[in-house]
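Reopening this one. Same input as before:
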Amino acid sequence: MAYKIKNNIKLLSWFNVFYNFRFYSVLAVIYFAQITRSYALAVSIFSIAQIAQAVFEIPSGIYSDKYGRTKCLQVGAIASFLSIIFYAFAHNYIFLVMGAIFEGLNRASFSGNNDALIYETLSETKNEKKYHYEFGKINSWLELSGFVSGIIGGLIAIKSIPLLFRLSIVPQLIVMMLSFRFIEPKIHREKLTSFSFHIKDAIKTYKSNQKVRLVSLAGVIGFAIGESTWSFQSVFYNLFLPTWAVSLVMSINFLTSAISFRLSGKLLNRFKTTAVLLYQEIYGRALYLIALIFPSVISPFLMATASVTYGPSTVAKSSLLQTEFTNRQRATMTLINSFIGNCFYAIVSILIGYFADKYGAVKSLLFGQIALLSVTFIYYKLFSIQKNSEK
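Same output, byte for byte:
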């Protein structure tokens, strides 16, 4: 069985390739606006997907911890397929809303579950120490797929934007079929427990484990502010670059992230996790602040270069948390963090939008980067704690 379960790792790479092969990813808002005839309603589809994810986060995590990683993976794959179906054949706002709800379920089913599946697969084959390497490699395919599909999608869009969604159905159909080929890891299972038990167990871990508390807090802040400012980056880029160049530079972020994920394993083999978290944060924050304080045609390229820190940061956070979680709570804890992050995102996105309307995209993005300095401080504290413990 051990040799068979190893296939989960290779299968997840192919799974990610097809999952993120979405020709519409960069141009979705234009398609939504064509159907709703309103940019406000078009943008609301993204918000609904985010809210739906928040609603499904904790229940899907408990489902994963109770009934298995592969079953949760299958639910997410089916939801992803249904989401694209509703988007592709939407004739009104209701169809788009249904697509957004299924997209939220899809994201929630994958966000903690897939990390746990990787860790437990490696644990069963006595290779859990390779988690950071395998996690980075698997996610590099996700980013590379986004880059390639984004470039091809731009060419297809010249003929038809709706065609982008209809062609994206095929990769999601493949994803759904692949989801039934995974083997469930033999994780330790206790008697089925209540929802309240999982929540109390999670709260106990937050209180007793300082590493989990600090990394979770940094992750929530980083996600909420980072995702909120991301949507305004194209507006900032457009101040200095033509629209076609904006799409190209935005796509480069996927390529840079893919490379950084691929190199993350080697980086974490050489440096401590807390050191990687701290130094990548300082590097990325410095580039963004320079680009925004001294805005010029170079700024978009500086900001695109900063995405090289995304891979090591994501892998380091996941590696640190996975080693601290028990099998019983592995997906639940990750999804609680994601749930809090999504709720915080809803608040921050409104503030970022308000600042953009009142003061412009540059000052709004700068406000976000200044706020993200709090994450740098948290990682510095985590780094100091570990350094002192080794003395």
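So the earlier flakiness isn't reproducible anymore. For the record, DSSP finds 19 helices and no strands in the chain.
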